[in-house]
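Thread title: Can someone regenerate the structure for this chain?

I was given the following input by a collaborator and told the matching structure tokens would be attached. They weren't. Posting the sequence so someone can regenerate them.
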Amino acid sequence: MTPVKFKAVLFDLDGTLIDSHASVERAWRKWSTYNGIDFNDANRVLHGRPAGETMRLLLPDASEEEIQLQKQRHELAESKDVEDTKLIPGAKELIETLTRFDIPWAIVTSGAYIIASARIRAAGLPVPEVFITPEKVTKGKPDPEPFLLGAELLGVSAEDCVVFEDSHAGLISGEAAMCRLVGVLSQYSAEQLPKADCYVKELSELIVTPSEDGYYELEPNII
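Best answer:
Regenerated them for you:
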């Protein structure tokens, strides 16, 4: 692969830094059953999107009051279901490397703060200074706003950021923000995702090396 150059990193959370698949599926299966929706239909659109936006897509005739009520109940249930949350292999080591090199990084997630913060604690990850959740933006992924805000708060041009994402909506968001892209194949194959600069199954497949031009580079971790 061609080295991916960057000055800062914008991480998605679920499916990228942590494996919360079981919790997500349990919560959305219950929600789908309650609303008489086939879970497979919900599963096709829920990944990478804020819960409220997913619900609006699947319940086009529901009032905003009903959407907000269901969203609050759903998020509370997910925030309490973190027992089997675990790190994606290599996540802890990659963040430790970024910290050692003093490289700015942020988490930019479609999960509500109550859910994302609970999962971060359960997985044993440090909470970054820049932590973007749907409460901080007007438009969630696949809109570029979340990643543009993350880059702005890190003080780095979005074009100099690399986005780590596992979902279609997330990669579309990162591309629209003009970021470099790493697709994490935790739930989809490379063929099922939009084009990225590179794809990895685990974050341990990459190493960070300084570049002479003031950038850093992501390269294959050849053991």
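The two ends are 16 Å apart (CA to CA).
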